[in-house]
Amino acid sequence: MLNFIYYPVSFILWVWHKAFSFLFGDAGWGGGIAWALSVMFLVFTLRLILFKPFVAQVRSMRKMQEFQPEMAKLRKKYSNDRQKQAEEMQRLQKEHGVNPLAGCLPVVVQVPVFIGLFHVLREFGPLNGDGSVRTENYFFDKAGVDSFNAASLFGAKLGSWVTQGEAVLTAAGTSITSMLIVMIPLMIAAGVFTHITARHSVARQTEAQLANPQSAIMNKLMLYVFPVGVVVGAPFLPLAVLLYWVANNLWTLGQQYVVYRRIDAEETEKKAQVIAERQARAPRPGQKPTRPEAPAAAAAEKTPGAKPVTRRAGSTNGNGSTESLANGAATRAATNGAPTRPATRRPRKRR
Asked: How far apart are CA 79 and CA 85, in angstroms?
């Protein structure tokens, strides 16, 4: 039914096992190391494929944080009309170029991958459901199935889990004690890394998101319920799945550090550019601000072939006579409504 998931997962695991078994061998301790590394690098391969969607998710979250106040206004404005509120939210998200589904894509894709890995590892068992000997497992032939069932990590079988019971574990070539010795450190590491990953994600949230009741409930689930769930569920999971969980959280921590650091640097650079542009447009210290031109002068400049008209004290008027400074002052005073005095001329001294 889900072969479109099982076959790709099995193929990636098969490729990595071929590579690591060539380096470490396919028997003894080398076989266990090869299979453990194959499971871990299966995780790294899948997460590398999902790297760009993760970056898009982070950018989408950042953009949504920027217009959270506008979304809060819409919730308040259309609190009694859910349909209108949803329409306005979609319009606002479209204006800012945000797709909410893009933020869920990496998480949604990892769920079927986890299911596929769990199923493929369970299918490595030596017997089929009808009791017959297993001869293949998707991309793995009988030799690959036998190699996985024979591989052990410090005495614990990668395809076994503690709750199978002593009889089943003994038949597989291990014991509950050997399984617990390897399972407990992996179980604790999986729970701790899950908590650290969640705490790192919560630390990036804004105050508005933290104040949201739904976000607060989800944060508590991520910080405490999910890590405890990993610890409680560990005895029911194959050791290879615990390896997958630890490797997945290690990759997530490193990926968050790299991506968040890069995006923070980009935002810091953008802010610096905006500040530099503002400073470039601002007047320099001691520089007088420029005033807009008079309408008549601006119209004259726009008229083709027209020369700007300038009047200065002592310039010639249309009759060819020269206006004195006194007449200019009288004209300005009359314009401003102030009383004017006739201009007087001093008598010339006779020589």
From this structure: 7
Cβ–Cβ < 8 Å for 39, 9: no
Answer positive or negative: Cα dihedral of 20, 22, 24, 30. Answer: positive
Residue 181 has pLDDT above 90, yes or no: yes
What is the C-alpha separation between 252 and 227, in angstroms, rounded?
15
Of the candidates 76, 74, 73, 101, the residue with the CA atom closest to the CA atom of residue 88: 74
- Cα separation of 202 and 190, whole Å? 18
**For helices 28-49 and 3-24, angle between their N-to-C axes, nearest 10 degrees:** 130
Query: Which phi and psi angles does 148 have, rounded to 5°?
Result: -65, -40
Cα separation, 283 vs 90, in Å, equals 42
Q: Which residues of 173-210 are buried (b: 16+ CB within 10 A; e: fewer)?
A: ebebebbeebbeebbebbbebbbbbbeebbeeeeeebe
Residue identified by tokens 């493929």 is: 120
Instruction: State the Cα–Cα distance between residues 55 and 261, nearest whole angstrom.
Output: 12
Tell me the C-alpha to C-alpha distance, in Å, between residue 92 and each of 63, 214, 253: 11, 21, 32
Phi, psi (degrees; rounded to nearest 5) at 137 = -150, 85
Q: What are phi and psi of 152, to 5 degrees?
A: -140, 150
- Tell me which residue has tokens 């209108």: 84
Q: d(Cα 246, Cα 45) in Å, to the nearest integer?
A: 15
Q: What is the pLDDT of residues 219-276, one digit of tens each?
A: 788 888 888 888 888 888 889 889 988 998 899 888 888 888 888 888 788 888 888 8
The percent of residues above 90 in pLDDT, for the chain, comes to 14
Q: How far is CA 244 from CA 95, 308, 338, in A?
A: 40, 80, 93
